[in-house]
Automatic annotation (TrEMBL), chain B:
<dbReference type="GO" id="GO:0000976">
    <property type="term" value="F:transcription cis-regulatory region binding"/>
</dbReference>
<dbReference type="InterPro" id="IPR011006">
    <property type="entry name" value="CheY-like_superfamily"/>
</dbReference>
<feature type="domain" description="Response regulatory">
    <location>
        <begin position="7"/>
        <end position="120"/>
    </location>
</feature>
<feature type="DNA-binding region" description="OmpR/PhoB-type">
    <location>
        <begin position="130"/>
        <end position="231"/>
    </location>
</feature>
<keyword id="KW-0902">Two-component regulatory system</keyword>
<dbReference type="InterPro" id="IPR001789">
    <property type="entry name" value="Sig_transdc_resp-reg_receiver"/>
</dbReference>
<dbReference type="GO" id="GO:0005829">
    <property type="term" value="C:cytosol"/>
</dbReference>
<keyword id="KW-0804">Transcription</keyword>
<keyword id="KW-0597">Phosphoprotein</keyword>
<protein>
    <submittedName>
        <fullName>Transcriptional regulatory protein afsQ1</fullName>
    </submittedName>
</protein>
<feature type="modified residue" description="4-aspartylphosphate">
    <location>
        <position position="56"/>
    </location>
</feature>
<dbReference type="GO" id="GO:0006355">
    <property type="term" value="P:regulation of DNA-templated transcription"/>
</dbReference>
<dbReference type="InterPro" id="IPR001867">
    <property type="entry name" value="OmpR/PhoB-type_DNA-bd"/>
</dbReference>
<feature type="domain" description="OmpR/PhoB-type">
    <location>
        <begin position="130"/>
        <end position="231"/>
    </location>
</feature>
<dbReference type="GO" id="GO:0032993">
    <property type="term" value="C:protein-DNA complex"/>
</dbReference>
<keyword id="KW-0238">DNA-binding</keyword>
<keyword id="KW-0805">Transcription regulation</keyword>
Amino acid sequence: MTTTARSVPSGPAASGGLGLRARVTVAFALGALALSAVLSVATYTVVRTQLVSQQERAAASQTYLNARVLRDGLRGGTGAGSVLTDLQTPDRGGVVLRQADRWFGNSVIVGRDTLPAALRDDVAAGVAATQRFEAGGESWVAVGVPMPRFQAEVFGVFSLGEVERTLEILGYSLAAVALLTVVAGAGVGRWASGRVLRPLGGVSEAAAAIAGGQLDIRLGARDRDLAPLVASFNHMVDALADRINRDARFASDVSHELRSPLTTLSTSIGVLEGRRGELSARGREALDLLAADVRRFQRMVEDLLEISRFDAGMAELDLQEVDLAELARHAVRGAGEVVPVVVRGGRSTVPAEVDKRRMERVIVNLIDNARAYGGGATTVEVAAVEGGVRLEVVDHGPGVPIEERRQIFDRFFRGSAAGRRGAGQGSGLGLALVVEHVRLHGGRVWVEDGNGARGARFVVEVPRA
Amino acid sequence: MQAVSARILAIEDDERIRSAMRLALEDEGYEVHEAASGEQALQLMPVADPDVVLLDVMLPGIDGFEVCRSIRRSSDVPIVMVTAKADTHDVVAGLEAGADDYVTKPFVAKELAARIRALLRRVRVTDPLSQTSTFGDGDLVVSPEAGEALRAGAPVRLTKTEFRLLCELAHNAGKVLSREQLLDRVWGYDYFGDGRLVDVHVRRLRAKLEPNPAEPRYVVTVRGIGYKLQP
C-alpha cells in the first residue's frame, strides 16, 4: 500500500520561472513583433525605392526636356544665359548650365559647386548620368546631360527632401503600427491562453473537490480536443473511488462480521458478571481480564466501523441545538471520570448546534486520550467564541512534543515518548475519529501546551452551523 | 429482579447470540421465548403472547421490517429492534415499521435490560398524568385511565409507546417539551437518546390523530426546541 509519490514534470515552468500563461503571452507578443518588423521593413524599402526612382525619373525627363530647349536655343543663336529663363526649374533645386567654360545657374541654393565631382566627370566624358548626393543636410538628385555639339552641359538638381519627409512619416507610422501589433499580439496571446487554460481550471477545481473527499465528481467533456484529458482524468477518479470504496467496504465488512461474535461475547460476559458471586477468586480475576479486553475489542470494532463510514463518505451530520456545557458534563460522566467542566466568558451555558452523538464521542475520546497518555484530564473548558464554540480538554501529563502535534491525530499513531506505549487502552483510532467528527462539523482540532510548562491542551473549534 | 415475570420473544437467527441473550434475560428474571426466523416468530406470537419483542433486523427469509409490520397489524406489544448500524436508514426504517426503540450490535446485556425495563415501565405504570383531557372542542380526547384516545368520537389504535407519548404531551398541554425531556420521560433515556425516536413517533402519532397530518393541528413542532400538544 505504501507508494512513493513521483511527480511528472509538466513543463519548464515546473522548475520556476514564468507560468504557462505568461509564456504564451510573451510568445505571441514576440511573434507579432517579428512579423510586424519584417512587414514594416519590407514596406519601407519598397516604398522608398519606388518614391526615389520616381523622383529620379521625373528629374531625368525634365532635364532632357531642358536639354532640348537649350539645344533649340543654342541652335537659334541664343546664349545659354538667356535660355536659362525658359527652362523649367524644379520647386526646390535648380538648373545649372555650362557652355564652353562659362557656368550659368538659376538658383541660389544649387550651383556648379553643388554638383558632385563624379557626375561632372561623367558628363564631361560625354555620358548622361544621374547621381544622388547630400548637400547642406539635404538629399538631392542631380541629372547631367552632355551636349558635345555645343560644348554645353545641362544639369538638373532636384531636392529629395519631400520624399525623405514622406518616408519619415511612413517610418513613424510603421513603427506605431508595429507597436500596436505587439500589444495586440500579447493581448491575443493572453486571451487565447486563458481560453485554453480555462478547462484546466475546471480540472483543478474537480481535483481539489476530489481531494476533499467528493469522489462522485467527474469532468464533463465540452471540448473535443480535451476529451482525452477528461477521459483519463475521469478514469483515474473512477479507479480511485473504486479502490477507496473497496478498502472502506472491506473494513466495514470485517467489522460487521465481528459484530455477531462480539454480541455473544459481551452478552455472555454480562451473564457471568451477574453471577460473580458464584465464581472463585481466580475465576473472577479471569472474568475481569476477559471483560476488559472484550470491551476494548468492542470499542475497536465500533471505531473501525465509524471510521470506515467516514472513509466511504457515508457519515451524516445530525445537528441539534444543545448547551455544550451540559453536553460536556454528560460526556465526562459517560467517560466515567470526575473532571470539572469550566464555562469561560462569564456565562453559564454555551449554546451550540452540533451532532450530539459525535460531539460526545469527541469529548469522550479526548478524555480517554488524556487518561491514557496525560495522567487524566484536569479540566474540560467550553466557551462561545467569535463565529462558533470552543472546547478544550486539558491534562497535566508530559505534553505532546512539537514534532508530534500533527502525527498524533494519525490513525494508529503511537508516540515516541516511553510513557506513551503499552497502555493499550484505546483502538488507536480515538484521535483520528476526533479529527473526522470535528471536520464533519466544519471545525478544527489541534494540540498545544497545557497550563504552564506541563501538560497538553486539546482544542476543538466548531463554527456556527 | 422482576417481581412479575414478563415474557420476552427474542427473534434472532444467530443461535449463539440467541442463547447468550436468553441466559442474560433469564438472569434478569424474564421468561424468554426464542424464534430463529421471522416465520417462526409470527407463528409463535399468539402462543407466547410476549410483553416485549426483541427483533433482529437482518433475518433470513422475511426481514425484520416486514416482521415488525406483521406484528403491528394485530398487536401493540413494545418492539425493540436490534440493528447493525446506528446511523443508517435502518433505524428510521425500523421505527417507521412500528418499532418502539432500538439497540445496536454489539450491545451490552445491561443496556438491553435497561431498554426492556423502560418499555415495561411505560406499559405498567399508571402515574399522575391520568386525568382525561380534551382538545379541539372534544374532537380529540385523551384518557390515560381508560388507556384510550378518541378522535371524532372513535377510538384510535395506538401502540403503547405512542399512547404514552400522547399522554406526556397531553399532561403538559400547551407547553413545549424538548426531545430530551420526551426521551427521558417516555423512553427512560438519560440525555443521549436518539432524537429520531421522538421524531418518528410524533410522525406516527400525527398519521393516526391529525385530520391532516401534513399540517398538524394538535401535535405541533416548535422549531429548534421540541413538540407541544395544542389545546
